[in-house]
Write a structure and sequence with these properties.
Rossmann fold; six-stranded parallel beta sheet; 434 Repressor (Amino-terminal Domain); about 15% strand; alpha/beta; elongated; 12 strands; 3 domains; about 350 residues
Length: about 350
């Protein structure tokens, strides 16, 4: 270490020859550490004169009256995706009438993750709300290690161990595809969300479920993977049209991707809904401002925000509360695109 650079969990871990998670466990008195590893970490802390926070020790047993809303996305994604702003409104509603302060934290990269780890280890907040969860995201595991009250908007998988709230993604997607089938569409493609997210897989499962229930075999070439961005929807729609020029229906796993798909269909001279019927998911402001307006699966995003907040406040007030799984219903809103 040179200059005035302060030691961090990362440098302590490197000196002790262990992972950062082990350092976090030692700092928080977790029993899930071997005597040998604990001794190595404590020696490294002493050698480096590492202090996690001037108030960290007192904060372990006292309240900060603040919670963190952690979104592992960039500012551009936060601004372009209506889902996030709706969640934030719901969280704010859930905190109305309390004295709890809300910190919004974006985690853009590995450096941001390491800074967040330092922040959370120092117990600067009483609990964490985590939005936009990917299967291999290290944050949920870190929060479990720190034994910090945590509630997720979404889940890593159907086996999610942390308290979480999500929409009926399978049922909503199936309803969208059943609607397209009911309108006489026969070749129905889907633009998925990222498949390292449960939400992406669940909405794809709903597409498959509706086709199977109708006696149709899902054609894997009618699946194009997107990333919940408008450009991703445009590229996925282009791929579907190249494979299936006879396509007459599309279910997109978000309104933003559906808007990109709509632009690509127009570029190819396809009329919506005459030639291709299109359904999105979210029923966000985007759905009401496309031309034609977008048929979309409504999910109660603000209610998700309120519910995760209420559940987190319960966990903070009553430590050891049983973890909960909440699924909120969806509904199909029919407009001009289908």
């Amino acid at each position: 270490m040179g200059g005035n650079q302060r030691p961090t969990i990362k440098t302590v871990a490197a000196r002790a020859g262990v992972g950062r998670t082990t350092v976090s466990r030692v700092l928080n008195g977790s029993p899930l550490v071997s005597d040998e590893a604990r001794a190595a970490v404590l020696a490294a802390i002493a050698e480096l004169n590492y202090v996690p926070s001037s108030v960290a020790r007192s904060l372990v047993t006292s309240r900060t009256d603040s919670i963190a809303l952690v979104i592992p996305e960039s500012e551009s994604r936060l601004g372009s995706e209506p889902y996030f702003s709706a969640v934030i409104r719901g969280v704010s509603d859930g905190l109305a009438g309390t004295q709890i302060q809300l910190l919004l934290i974006l985690v853009r990269d590995q450096r941001g993750l390491e800074s967040l780890e330092e922040f959370l280890t120092a117990r600067r907040v009483d609990g964490v709300l985590l939005v936009s969860v990917h299967r291999d995201d290290p944050l949920p595991g870190l929060l479990e290690t720190l034994e910090l009250p945590t509630v997720l908007a979404g889940r890593r998988s159907p086996e999610e161990s942390l308290t979480h709230v999500h929409s009926d993604n399978v049922g909503g997607a199936a309803e969208a595809v059943r609607h397209l089938l009911g309108r006489g569409r026969k070749t129905i493609g889907t633009i998925t969300g990222p498949l390292d997210m449960d939400v992406g897989n669940s909405r794809l499962s709903g597409w498959r479920e509706a086709l199977v229930d109708a006696g149709l075999a899902p054609d894997e070439t009618l699946i194009a993977t997107g990333d919940f961005t408008e450009e991703g929807g445009r590229l996925a729609m282009r791929a579907l049209l190249e494979r299936h020029p006879d396509l007459d229906g599309v279910f997109a796993a978000s309104d933003v991707m559906a808007a990109g798909a709509l632009a690509e269909l127009r570029r190819h001279g396809r009329r919506v809904p005459d030639d291709v019927a299109l359904v999105g998911f979210d029923d966000s402001i985007v759905a009401r401002h496309t031309d034609p307006p977008l048929t979309s699966v409504r999910q109660p995003v603000e209610e998700i925000g309120r519910t995760i907040t209420e559940l987190l406040l319960q966990e903070i007030a009553q430590r050891g509360t049983a973890r909960q799984r909440v699924m909120l219903p969806t509904s199909l809103i029919v407009r001009g695109s289908a």
